[in-house]
Amino acid sequence: MILVPFPEMKTLSRSLAPALGAELCPLDWHRFPDGESLMTLPGNMEGADVAVLATLRDPDRLALPLRFVAQTARELGARSVGLIAPYLGYMRQDRRFHAGQAVSAKLFAGFLADSFDWLVTVDPHLHRIERLEDVFTIPAVRVASASLLADWIRTNLPDAVFVGPDSESQQWVAEVARLAARPYEVLRKVRIGDLQVDVSVPESATLHQGTPVILDDIASSGRTMARAVERLLAAGTGSPVCLAIHAVFAEGAYDVIMSAGAARIVTTDTIPHPSNVIGTAGVLAKAVRSAVSGIDLPVSGRIRLTPTRSERNTR
């Protein structure tokens, strides 16, 4: 296997490549003054399973370069080309909320499926979409980070009381709390706009029985976490630790959360950020091996699903 990381993923690639037993081949991405990109891969990839490593925190910027890399790898002889996207963008727009809107989750999944033979990602934001298989026509493996988060909590905050900032966070909070054998509460959120939210804290003795840990899958604008921090402090709890799977952090978001009174922000390394503490290389490597082993080469040389799509649709 050959691992081709996009430039911002060098840190994760250095631990992922040995976990995969893969040859690490950096990608050269040259940007011309007119905004176009020239992607350069290592020369001969004859017969190799190529894994491209690119987190999709900024998917619009990466979309064409990803397609260029995938196609070029095939032209250089790759047996298969897969995508390791620790963070998978565009999963939140999973239905048409207003007339005329694009259902971006399905469209983006289709775009990636046109370029790659398999996909591995960490805890995608699936709400109304129940499974990756519902939108992807290629093998798509979801890696769960709950055990990694629980291990970190047991080691560093054994008195943690988990707090979900809204109802959507409950699926992650409940599982991590179970694995860490700690209690949890879920707050209520009302979204007023893209950057305005309000959060209510239930009257619960549990919140005062340890260090509050606000857990969510994505920290984007930071407003939800910041409001949760403020409300918890107003309710008399200790200074909360904020734990996020994906450090999306729009401009200024990290400072917004810290200014609200958070004791610390901890994230996984699915998106490079100074708050990264929890590594995902081990679980990603296991999932990649599973994805690659689940593909077959047809006579044409292009991989296919096992079973084929037509076979699945007739069951």
What does this structure look like?
The chain is α/β, with parallel strands linked by helices and 315 residues long. Helix content is 31%, strand content 24%. Strands 2-1-5-6-7-8 form a 6-stranded parallel beta sheet, with helices on both faces. Helix 1 crosses helix 8 (281-293) and helix 6 (223-234) runs parallel beside helix 7. The longest helix is centred in the N-terminal third of the chain and has 17 residues, at 59-75.
Number of continuous helical runs:
9
Query: How would you sum up the global shape?
Result: globular
**Strand proportion:** 15-25%
Chain-averaged pLDDT? 88
Order of helices and strands: EHEEEEHEHEEHEHEEEEHEHEEHH
What gyration radius follows from the Cα positions, in whole Å? 21 Å
- Main sheet: which strands, in order across? 2-1-5-6-7-8
Secondary structure elements and pairings:
Elements: E1 2-5, H1 10-20, E2 23-24, E3 28-31, E4 37-40, E5 49-53, H2 59-75, E6 80-85, H3 104-115, E7 118-122, E8 140-143, H4 146-156, E9 160-164, H5 170-180, E10 184-186, E11 188-193, E12 196-200, E13 211-218, H6 223-234, E14 241-246, H7 253-259, E15 264-268, E16 276-278, H8 281-293, H9 309-313
Parallel strand pairs: 1-2, 1-5, 5-6, 6-7, 7-8, 9-10, 9-13, 13-14, 14-15, 15-16
Antiparallel strand pairs: 3-4, 11-12
List keywords for this structure.
single chain; alpha/beta; 6-stranded parallel beta sheet; 16 strands; globular
Quick gist of this model?
The chain is an alpha/beta fold.
